[in-house]
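Progress note, project year one: complex with glutamine.
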Amino acid sequence: MTKHIFVTGGVVSSLGKGLTSASIGMLLERRGLCVRMQKLDPYINVDPGTMSPFQHGEVYVLEDGSETDLDLGHYERFTHSVLTRDSNYTTGQIYLSVINKERRGEFLGKTVQVIPHVTNEIKKVIQKLAGSETDVVITEIGGTVGDIESQPFLEAIRQFSIDVGKENCLYIHLTLVPYLKAAGELKTKPTQHSVGQLREIGIQPDILICRSERPIPREDREKIALFCNVPLQAVIEERDKDFSIYEVPLSLMENELDELIAQRLGLNVGTHDLEDWRDLLHRLRNPDCEISIAVVGKYARHRDAYKSIYESLDHAGIAHRAQIRIQSIESEQIEREGPERSLGGFDGILVPGGFGERGIEGKVETIRFAREKGIPFFGICLGMQCAVIEFARNVAGLAEANSTEFDKDTPHPVICLLDEQKTMTDKGGTMRLGAQPAVLTPESRAAEAYQAESLSERHRHRYEFNNTYRQQFAAHGMLVTGTSPDGKLVEIVEIPSHPWFIAVQFHPEFKSKPTDAHPLFSRFIQAAIRRHSTHDDVPSASSSLPTS
Ligand code: GLN
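Model obtained:
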């Protein structure tokens, strides 16, 4: 019988439910269990694919091409849980399915209602992950208890334990225990209120995970236990980690969370094997060098817009024992100030993906700077397309070259719409998405990085390199070194005469793991370290990720 863990959040959003859920998944997996993970999001979009990164942060793409919430990135980085379309449902998807059934006449004669029709649909998608192979399904409910949108999900998970038996379900609630400076103490009241709201709808949490910036004294934990109707050992502190998110699973383990879960659900668990994880934290804490990487994008001021890219840079840093100082820079800033001022002194420059015309010229200028100065450059998706535009304009002599995404009438459409996209009218879920194979040119830098002649990487784009220009580019020194197996779609370009210049049409950041850095990120960081050891200039601006 598959056991179910439901993770809800209260008091405020951004408590790190995704990270906590991923950490729980990891701890259980490391004790020998087969875990599947899922996120249920209360918004009405069918998926986050049509939302701006400013609204939603990164859209995380799975192997099967589904466009999902960025928390699924944490799930994949922390666990081996197989993620598919069934791993992320939204209110929009649930309703769409109920309404389609209504149109087909499946509820003929009945009034279709939130209870039972919508809640049944929600329970069905949770049940989809259960099965004889799966020991535990972890279902994270997006949003915060008390949100109007979350209610059908909470009602559904309440009913779920009646359906499958209380002994097979565990409710974990994440709350905030804030420190009030004026009072000089931690406050438990928000947690009490939040649990009160959950209990009002019929859910008594089994375990409370209390986020706090300070240690929570025993008296406060006792108070929370008493008012929230849980035993003291089920009040688990999760203190802020200012060093690394990869500390979270170990600290939850020290607070015996996985032990408690195993006991409560009667799980037959082995002992942990966490050596590799301890080793990665050790490497993070003891770097041999520090390098600085500029990420020049269109959504730089949103903290989560390039989440997987920041993580992948860190993974490569772990692999090479280098601390990576990442500075996220808006490409519009480059348009205003020029590249020299903002980018002087970085050891490597990465230009990530994006959509729409705003900030494109800043990206192109950034790439020109990286190319001309010999700074290691890594372009991803739109970053690759901009690298092609830059090369066309400034090296291949194709003035005004552009992507037809930004200039429909450009005289040199070096990036143009994929054939399959030309008749596409819908915007949702219609890009070239998910895992696609590619073949590599032997002895290219890309082949050397992958140590292979082929690869499979995840995609999310509508535009592509225009094959008409391949020869012309090659003649000027930019080579196509990766294509789709039929040779028709360009997947990788590189400039062999540059110290390290690779740009890819796919998104390698979705496949990097903390204990297994992605080969391209790894080689990029290696090149940046090489540059760092031969140049001692420092970045011109203070280095940090955006904070909000
Ligand atoms: N806007 C570009 C395209 O659709 C790039 C997409 C991306 O960077 N994910 O092809």
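The first strand starts at residue 3 and ends at 9.
The chain has 19 helices and 23 strands.
No further modelling is planned for this target in the current period.
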